[in-house]
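dumping this here so i dont lose it again. seq + smiles for magnesium ion
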Amino acid sequence: MKITDLKCAIIGDFPVVRILTDEGIEGLGQGEYPKPYLKPHVMFYKDLIIGEDPTDVERVMTRIRRVGAFKPWGTAVSAIEVALWDIAGKAAGLPVYKLLGGKVRDRVRVYNGAVRFPLKGHTPQHYAENMQRMKESKEGFTIIKQGIAFHGTMADSMPGLYYGDPPGGPRATQGGLFTEKGFKHTMACIEAMKEVLGDEIGLALDCGPGFTVIDAIRLAKAVEPMNIMWLEDMITGDYTPYVLAQLYRDVTNASSTPIHTGEQIYLRQNFKDLIETQAVRVIGPDPLDVGGIAELKWIAEYADLHGIQMAPHGTADGLIGLAALVHVSATLPRNYIAFEYPVGKPDWWYDIIDGLPDPIVKDGFIDVWDTPGLGVKFNVPAARKYLKDGDKDFFN
Ligand SMILES: [Mg+2]
C-alpha cells in the first residue's frame, strides 16, 4: 500500500487530517481546536510521506518526527501518526488498540476537563456553584479538574493575587510569588470545591504555569489533608517550550500531594528527565501533541517502571482525538488513571462523526469499541456543509 495524498481542512477550529492511499483505504487524524493556524504546517509534511507504506507506521514517522517541537508544533506530526494507525487498523481489519499491543481494559475512565459551565466569578462560592453543576453533569465523572491560580481567569480578575501584574494577552507568560492574601484566597476556593465533591469524586487542579517553587511547595503541603488527585502544571506546562524537571523534583519531594505535568511535551526523549528522576507523580502527555498514540504508549510503559501514574491530556482533542485516546488508553498499563475527555465543539460535530457510542460516557467510563481502525468516520454529506472556502475539496 502507498500513501497517495495528505489533506488538511479546518473544520470548526480543528485541523483535520485525511491521508489517502492507492488501495482506497483512508485514515483520519485531528489536532486541538484552538490551532486552526496549523494547516500550512500539516501540509509541510506531505512531500515527505507520499509513496510510503502507511501500515509501516514507524518507518513513516522516522521521516517526519525530527521536524516537530513542543506544543503547538507537535500537533501536525501527531495527527498524521493517528491517521496512519487508522489506515493500518482498517487494512488489518482490526481496531487500533490491537495494533498497539491489545487492550488491558474493556472500558476506559475519563475525567472532566472540557464539560464546562460559565464561572460567574472567582469567590469560593462561585467555584462551589460551578463544581456543583459539573458534579451533576450527565457523564457521571468520577474525577473533575478545575483551573485555579494562574490557570484560567483567576489571576487576571483578582488584583493582588501575586506580586506582579497580569501581562495581558492570551499567549503571554505570567507568574510570580503569591501574596499571603492571594494564597489564602486560592486555598479557600479549593476548600469550597472539595466541600461539594466530598470523597465521592476526585478533585484535580490545573494551576499554572507560573508558580514559584516556594508557592508550589506551600500549596502542595497545604492541600495534603484534602487528598487532591493532582496539582497540574504549577511551574511549567501548557505551551511552555521546556520542562525544568529539577524544579518539579523539589516540589514532589516536599509533599505527599501528587504533582502532574507534561501536556505540552513533544516526544519520549523530553519526558526522560521527568521520569528517570521521578520529578512528578503523574504525567499527562496529549496524544495530539506528544507525537501520537504509539509515542504515548511508550512513555506510559516507561513511566510505569518508575512508579509514575498516567492521566493523558485531551481537553481540546475533538471527536477523532477522542477515538485515538480511547484506543491508546485501553492498552496502557496499570498506572493509567483516566484521560481528559474532549467534547465536540461546536455541537454540530456530533452530527458529522459516526461510530461513537451513544451516550459516549456512562458513569464516568467509555466502553472500548471494536470496529477496525479508529472506528470513527465522517458523515460526508453532513460534514461537507461545514467546509470553509479553500477546503471544499477535502472529501474528494
Ligand atoms: Mg493543563
